[in-house]
């Protein structure tokens, strides 16, 4: 028998900031496993894998969290327009959905969504949606010749994107940019994911600064212009310490922080990083038999230029609250790792509470177990905004697959192979 963990309805928001400020907003990000991808989770009994069973669990879990901001990934378009639409109406939520035009497998359309509670937040202008494949290198601060390289040609084939909304917090009058994304899934292409993240940062930063100027808030919202909450399944590990077929050699010290995480947490990704498109070697092989896009033969090498977060200073909610990233937010029969994040612009937003994880891994600092909750202070308290990723480095490492008491999901209680992440943030 596998490890016994609390069900999702037992997860609580554990206070990390005392006294709790009045301007708190609850946020949850959740990849709910679209029905057409559930066939990959064949370890789950068919009756529990059926969408008719899982959709009720999703709705129950969302109701339990009672978040003011909800970001969903792998949200089935029909579900968004029907059952979830009814739930949103009853819960006083509004939202915006972006379908993914090109997905990993054929079948019903799925995508990403942002939702906000109308009682707490007012939509200031129509939401903005974008596809990374339709953006040019200039959005990421790159020269035009980057568009002719193999990583960029691969990016042009994909359907990932982002949806963002400019909201006004009714109680405080403060503006907020709320954004959701779902980066490319394949571990063969960390360089393409890093490009997607750089494009995302360029668009979000421009949107936030434009919003600040239009609303007369320029210079009042930190480096971003307006505070930013950026959620999603980034399909990128905070750290890797065991070599595998995708990274057979780890950097000196035996620890690889993914390019996407390095970019978002540190503000830049150097061309020497193994996930940077300048460093990544594109060669067909058993793990990537179609790695070279059609028409990509003889393409120039990606320029040796750092990727940038476009001035965004971001901190991961979990790292800020726990002092490190949790080892597991995605758990299947053969994989366990942290792929899901809520990024907060710094120093605009503080973490007031964090959604407890449904397992304890024995690491240090603790992942908000009873002792940490009683202490009432975040393990990462005092970290500078520029050290947003430092919490992930400070903890005692545990093998996500072997050392963490989290069983493979979905199962009878969990609707997805991902765990919802989130917390309460203070404007």
Beta content comes to: 15-25%
Low-confidence stretches: 286-296, 370-393
Which percent range fits the helix content? 10-25%
Number of distinct helices: 10
Q: How confident overall, as mean pLDDT?
A: 89
Gyration radius, to the nearest Å?
20 Å
Structural class: alpha+beta
CATH homologous superfamily placement: Endonuclease/exonuclease/phosphatase
InterPro entries: CCR4/nocturin_mRNA_transcr (IPR050410), Endo/exonu/phosph_ase_sf (IPR036691), Endo/exonuclease/phosphatase (IPR005135)
Domain Endonuclease/exonuclease/phosphatase: 29-362
Pfam families: Exo_endo_phos
GO molecular function: 3'-5'-RNA exonuclease activity
Architecture blueprint of SSEs:
Blueprint: E1 13-15, E2 24-31, H1 46-49, H2 51-65, E3 69-76, H3 77-81, H4 83-91, E4 93-99, E5 110-117, E6 121-123, E7 128-131, H5 150-156, E8 161-169, E9 175-182, H6 190-214, E10 228-233, H7 259-266, E11 268-269, E12 307-308, E13 314-316, H8 317-322, E14 330-331, E15 336-337, E16 340-345, E17 350-355, H9 370-375, H10 390-394, E18 421-426
Parallel strand pairs: 2-3, 9-10
Antiparallel strand pairs: 1-17, 2-18, 3-5, 4-5, 6-8, 7-8, 8-9, 10-16, 11-12, 13-16, 14-15, 17-18
Helix pairs in contact: 5-6, 6-7
GO molecular function: 3'-5'-RNA exonuclease activity
Domain Endonuclease/exonuclease/phosphatase: 29-362
Protein name: Endonuclease/exonuclease/phosphatase domain-containing protein
């Amino acid at each position: 028998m596998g490890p016994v963990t609390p069900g999702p309805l037992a997860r609580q928001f554990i206070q990390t900031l005392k006294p709790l400020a009045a301007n708190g907003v609850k946020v949850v990000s959740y990849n709910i496993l679209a029905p057409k991808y559930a066939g990959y989770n064949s370890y789950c009994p068919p009756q529990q894998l059926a969408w008719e069973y899982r959709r009720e669990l999703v709705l129950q879990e969302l109701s339990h969290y009672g978040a003011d901001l909800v970001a969903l990934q792998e949200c089935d378009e029909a579900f968004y327009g029907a059952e979830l639409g009814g739930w949103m109406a009853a819960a006083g939520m509004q939202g915006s959905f972006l379908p993914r035009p090109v997905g990993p497998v054929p079948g019903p359309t799925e995508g990403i969504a942002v939702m906000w509670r109308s009682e707490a937040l007012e939509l200031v202008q129509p939401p903005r949606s974008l596809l990374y494949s339709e953006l040019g290198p200039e959005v990421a601060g790159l020269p035009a010749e980057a568009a002719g390289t193999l990583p960029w040609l691969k990016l042009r084939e994909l359907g990932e994107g982002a949806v963002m909304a400019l909201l006004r917090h009714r109680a405080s009058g403060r503006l907020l940019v709320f954004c959701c994304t779902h980066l490319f899934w394949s571990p063969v292409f960390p360089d393409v994911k890093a490009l997607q993240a750089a494009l995302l940062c360029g668009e979000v930063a421009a949107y936030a600064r434009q919003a600040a100027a239009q609303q007369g808030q320029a210079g009042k919202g930190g480096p971003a212009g307006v505070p930013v909450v950026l959620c999603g399944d980034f399909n990128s590990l905070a750290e890797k310490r065991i070599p595998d077929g995708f990274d057979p050699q780890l950097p000196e010290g035996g620890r690889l922080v993914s390019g996407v995480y390095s970019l978002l947490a540190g503000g830049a990704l150097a061309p020497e990083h193994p996930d940077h498109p300048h460093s990544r070697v594109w060669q067909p092989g058993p793990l990537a038999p179609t790695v070279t896009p059609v028409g990509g033969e003889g393409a120039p090498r990606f320029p040796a230029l750092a990727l940038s977060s476009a001035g965004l200073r971001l901190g991961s909610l979990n790292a800020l609250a726990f002092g490190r990233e949790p080892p597991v937010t995605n758990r299947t029969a053969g994989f366990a790792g942290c792929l899901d994040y809520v990024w907060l612009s710094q120093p605009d937003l503080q973490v007031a509470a964090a959604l407890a994880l449904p397992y304890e891994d024995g690491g240090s600092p603790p992942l908000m177990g009873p002792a940490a909750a009683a202490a009432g202070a975040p393990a990462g308290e005092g970290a500078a905004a520029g050290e947003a990723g430092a919490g992930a480095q400070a903890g005692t490492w545990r093998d996500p697959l072997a050392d963490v008491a989290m069983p493979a999901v979905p199962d009878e209680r969990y609707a997805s192979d991902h765990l919802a992440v989130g917390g309460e943030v203070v404007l």
